[in-house]
Amino acid sequence: MNMHSARAAFGLDKLKTILGIPVVAIRWNDAIVLLNRLIAERRFTKVSFLNAHNANIACTDPVFAEALDDFLILPDGIGVDLAARLLYGAPFPDNLNGTDFVPAFLQASTTPLTVGLLGATRVNAEAASVKLAALAVQHRFVVIHDGYFPASQESEIVDRIAALRPDVLLVAMGVPRQELWIARHIDARHCTLPIAVGALLDFLSGSVPRAPLWMRRLRLEWLFRLAVEPSRLWRRYVVGNPLFLLRVVRQRFSRTPETARDSQ
């Protein structure tokens, strides 16, 4: 099932379109219920999250933007909340950032599931699997492969996923590679819910620190990440955040919030 049919099946007509990308405006608990229903009914649905960074990438990468059209997109971070305020007069109901939401969803899912992990380094993926198994003891977590493999190994990895056929497949390869990889290789034969999770496995493993809780509550986790990894992330945040807001302002003053994605 693609994003459009999932929306039709479950009445998800409350969308906010950010730079041409339709994002579901849904409460935290309702999103958990939705994902559980998709699994229970075995409705194949690709899931990703929109933040300022990947919205910027979609503006300049039409292949990535097209791939996102077939994902169920959840809102992640203060950037898209600011965009929703500017464009629609209200923020998203909840911040469903994957780092917090995905573990909470797994913890809240009472039916035993098989969860595949694909991505990060092998050490971090294994450590994340141990952490998740302690957090959600009802599920089985299986590390399929790390995220560092040549194209020649792809068919073997895809076959391994199909043999396992997990209910949930967590793909942690970074944006846009993880979404493009899911779009090109994963369908209903492989799993029910492939979820693009970014750095989740690195965070769960403890190798990348999270911001203190007070910073997360103030929506300043991006600032903490910038301080921890300035050389890698300065362009994403120092350049990217103002660019994202500029694009949103341009959308705001165009004809309609549903206008086509900024092509620049």
UniProtKB/TrEMBL annotation:
Enumerate the CDD domains for this protein.
Glyco_transf_WecG_TagA
Q: Which GO terms describe its molecular function?
A: hexosyltransferase activity
Record keywords, A-Z: Glycosyltransferase, Transferase
Report the InterPro entries cross-referenced here: WecG_TagA_CpsF
Keyword Acyltransferase present in the record's keywords: the answer is: no
Q: What is this protein called?
A: Exopolysaccharide biosynthesis WecB/TagA/CpsF family protein
